[in-house]
Amino acid sequence: ITATANGGSNYSFSINGGSFQSSGTFSGLAAGKYTIAAKTDAGCLGTAEVTVGTKDPCAGVTVAVTTTQVNPVNGQSNGSITASATGGTGFTYSLNNGTYQSSGVFSGLAAGTYTITAKNASGCSAIAQATLTGTDPCAGITVAVSTTKTDPTTGQSNGSITAAATGGTGFTYSLNNGAFQASGTFSGLATGNYTITAKNSNGCTGSTTVALGANNPCAGVTITVSSTQVNPTLNQSNGSITATASGASGYTYSLNNGAFQASGVFTGLAAGTYTITAKSSAGCLGTGQATLTATDPCAGITVAVTTTQVNPASGQSNGSITASATGGSGFSYSLNNGTFQTSSTFSGLAAGSYTITAKNANGCTGSAIVTLTATSACSGVNIGMTFTITNTTPCVSPANNGSIAVTASGSSGYSYNLNGGAWQTSNNFPSLNTGNYLMGVKDLNGCTATSTASVTVLAPGATFAPVKALITSRCSGSGCHTNGGSAAGYNFDTDCNIVKYWSQINGAAVTYTLKKMPQSPQALLSTAEKATITAWINAGHGYVN
């Protein structure tokens, strides 16, 4: 029902007292009486009664159904029905009151009667019946099977049958009612009777029986085996047999019934009798025997060993033996029955007896005994020593200012020590006091020599000695500085005090810048005595000046 109103504005509409809506259209209504109310925006109302009747959408419509069908093969469900309809649009189709579908095609059907219903978009329908009748696709069809065969070898399964068929297309084949296969060839067959069945794409079949006999490929074939051999060395397995065969082709070979191999060569054999079997590609066999006799490669061969040696130093392992051999070639050498080596030199040996064994390429051996005698590396070595000595100088610092430098001869590779101390590469020993020192020298072989060197005190200098004598003779009595006297805090009883207090000596005895010395009753120094002191001071006023 679609309602409109006048006499106001901005209408809303209600049906049968329901909620008002802006639209005046009400749909989805069944037949019956309805009250439509219209309301303005001011709330003013108006109503109308409306009766909705019924109508038949199929009135005057005739739906007609037609079908076409494909009959199924007997016993199968491969038939189909295709339906079409007139008398409307939007048709759907149902088979035997089943679910409707948009397609009018129904497939996978067996023989039987089927009801097809067509319904248009308005629900108007019509039915039609279709009857499917089973058909025999093999009616009038004869499947004929032909074969070719290959008989198997006696006792083997290497025969075959190949089948072909007529009377249809898309053939598959079965052997003795087994599974069907696309190929008509069956192989790996032994002697016996076999049934071959062919089936075309419609399932029509035909069969034939094939008998396979036995075939002996070796009938009339004689295989002859010949060989050449290399005899092994005595007590070794280095012999070989090379076999060849005739009378067939495609040979493999076996030694003493072992595994067959493509090569006729067998190596690593000891002396003995061997059976060689040859087998052709057809399986035909032939045998031959070969006897290997041991040979002695050392017969008439004498291996002679000569040596040169270097004796070791006493208590050391630095000796060596070098061997050479005759009586063959390709020699290797062993020391005291040890592992053989290609080098003939053995080093790092101590004193003792050694057995050298030489072995040639054929295994022939010879030996020699060598005795190494310990030798002293220092035998005949005479190391000489000379010294350069610097004696100590008194009254200087440090006091241990002497030194000894050692010069060695008679060998080489020297090291040096002092008083049995640690060895050093330097031959110089500084910072020594006066005394006697035991100097040692050692060469590269450990040979040693010792000698004593003495460091003494240097003699007084030429100007110092007269000054000391002058002070000793003239400085005595009261207020002097000798004989334990220490006027002004010093004395001249020691050489170093004379050196230390040279300025005071000069000031008191020569220049008189200090208290004049010597004191009475001794007379002051003479001009000559003063000159003695001045000469020493000008020379450096030291002990050695």
Descriptive terms for the model:
3-stranded antiparallel beta sheet; 545 residues; mainly beta
Entry summary:
The protein has helices spanning 464-474, 495-500, 502-509, 527-539; strands at 12-15, 32-39, 45-52, 64-70, 79-86, 92-95, 105-109, 112-119, 125-132, 144-150, 159-166, 172-175, 185-189, 192-199, 205-212, 224-230, 239-246, 252-255, 265-269, 272-279, 285-292, 304-310, 319-326, 332-335, 345-349, 352-359, 365-372, 384-390, 402-409, 415-418, 428-432, 435-442, 448-455.
Give a structural overview.
The chain is flat. It starts with 11 loop residues before the first strand and ends in a 6-residue tail after the last helix. It is 7% helix and 40% strand. A hairpin with an 8-residue loop joins strand 4 and strand 5 (79-86). The protein has helices at residues 464-474, 495-500, 502-509, 527-539, and strands at residues 12-15, 32-39, 45-52, 64-70, 79-86, 92-95, 105-109, 112-119, 125-132, 144-150, 159-166, 172-175, 185-189, 192-199, 205-212, 224-230, 239-246, 252-255, 265-269, 272-279, 285-292, 304-310, 319-326, 332-335, 345-349, 352-359, 365-372, 384-390, 402-409, 415-418, 428-432, 435-442, 448-455. By secondary structure, it is mainly beta. Strands 1-2-3 form a 3-stranded antiparallel sheet, with no helix packed on it. A 3-stranded antiparallel sheet has the order 4-5-7, with no helix packed on it.
